Amino acid sequence: MSQLFRAVQDELWRALAEQGFADLGPRHGSVLAYLSPDGVRSTELARRCGQHKQIVGTVVDELEALGYVVRRPDPADRRAKLVVPTERGLAEIDTARRIIRDVENRHAEALGRDDYARFKAALRVVTRQQRQAAGHE
């Protein structure tokens, strides 16, 4: 599984760089993947991606400096901040999703759509069980 993950990640980051996002890397992707257009609190980002709050805070600082996110007051609690993707951040998220969709379509064609669907279903079960065992859920 680690070889598959690394190969997909390598393809993703190479393609993102080719499409104008060369200033990002996997550590940024671990946060960008869990953003929503309306924003997410850093504590929720940390929970979603299974990272410590301090690590997520550092990555958010980097993403903010690069112009991918901004911090805004949370309307539900003015003391809290939401991490909100900028137009550039939304463009990166959309581009990454398209790249992953293309990778998945290529694999589905190679295996056959039904076999690939079963593979993904099994992988979701294994992932959920592993995340629970690791205390991420």
Automatic annotation (TrEMBL):
GO annotation (BP), single: response to stress
Pfam families noted in UniProt: MarR_2
Boundaries of every HTH marR-type domain copy: 1-128
Keywords recorded for this protein, A-Z: DNA-binding, Transcription, Transcription regulation
GO MF term (any one): DNA-binding transcription factor activity
Organism domain of life: Bacteria
PROSITE patterns, sorted: HTH_MARR_1 (PS01117), HTH_MARR_2 (PS50995)
Name of the featured protein: DNA-binding transcriptional regulator, MarR family
